[in-house]
Design goal:
By secondary structure, the chain is α+β, with helices and mostly antiparallel strands. The chain has helices at 41-49, 53-61; strands at residues 4-5, 11-17, 22-27, 33-36, 67-69. Helices cover 24% and strands 29% of the residues. It is globular.
Length: 76
């Protein structure tokens, strides 16, 4: 799984596990990473194509998918 950098004031990077349908998002201000379960590939493509990924997150992801906060990753 590869993290892709995002040009967004809200989100710094995204990754997607197509086999498990899990979306991974890292937030710019906090560095926190979350994973969103049962996230269809069509929604992931729509997210990538969105003019504003932050607005897409607020309108189409937050509050609509089961999620969990991941442990912070620290650089070695």
């Amino acid at each position: 799984m590869t993290w892709l950098p995002l040009e967004s004031r809200m989100l710094s990077s995204v990754a997607y596990d197509e086999e498990r349908q899990i979306l991974y998002l890292r937030f710019r201000n906090t560095g926190d990473a979350y994973r969103y379960f049962e996230f269809p590939i069509t929604e992931y493509q729509a997210f990538l194509d969105a003019e504003s990924r932050g607005r897409f997150f607020l309108a189409h992801i937050r509050g609509r998918f089961r999620y969990e906060r991941m442990a912070k990753l620290s650089a070695a």
